[in-house]
Amino acid sequence: MKLYYSPGACSLSPHIVLREAGLAFELVLASTKTHKLQDGTDYYGINPLGYVPMLELDDGTRLREGPAIVQYVADQVPTKNLAPANGTLPRYRLQEWLTFIGTEIHKSFSPLFNPAMPEEGKQIYRDRLASRIEWVDGQLAGKDYLMGDHFSVADAYLFVVTNWAKPMNIDLSARKNLMAWRERMSARPAVQEALKAEGLAK
Fold first, then answer.
1. What distances in angstroms separate CA 166 from CA 12, 65, 86, 90, one per listed residue?
2. How many domains does the chain have?
3. What is the CATH number of the domain that holds 9?
4. Residue 2: partners with Cβ closer than 8 Å, 6 or more residues away
5. Is the pTM of this model over 0.85?
6. What pLDDT, in 10s, does the model give residues 130-156?
7. N or C terminus of the chain: which is more exposed, having fewer CB within 10 Å?
């Protein structure tokens, strides 16, 4: 398998999950600025949408969108318990989390990275993020991970998007449950390996 990624982008989520799963894969750097690979190949020719992540399977099949990719990876190694079994209520809870993170947190960060967005507009998204993050902090009370005692693919996604808080000057320090969860996540070997592989940690 090949994972097309950009360092620190949302593609870090499936990168972490692939390492948690213990599957063999190749990382392919796809610049989100130039939309070219390191060898100069036009990434649009591979993925017409031009963004990451994208997972290319060994048979050439390509899968886009992080929440779909992480669930696919989890289902390849069910013994790792990275996602509940298909068709169960816990699986729909997982999808609930993935959707919430994608639509309420990830997409609220996107305008903050846009230099053309006026400051007044950015403040609207900061306020929205503050309320969503406060809710997540409450959901983590008394739990090690989003789904309870065990890591799931939703944790990988939330970890990545909350990594963007500091560069966007969003202070998470008052969210004690979230900060304790982030410490647990940062200590996971797969997370450390992924961060190092993307040049985000030593």
1. 17, 24, 35, 31
2. 2
3. 3.40.30.10
4. 25, 26, 27, 28, 55, 56
5. yes
6. 999 999 999 999 999 999 999 999 999
7. C
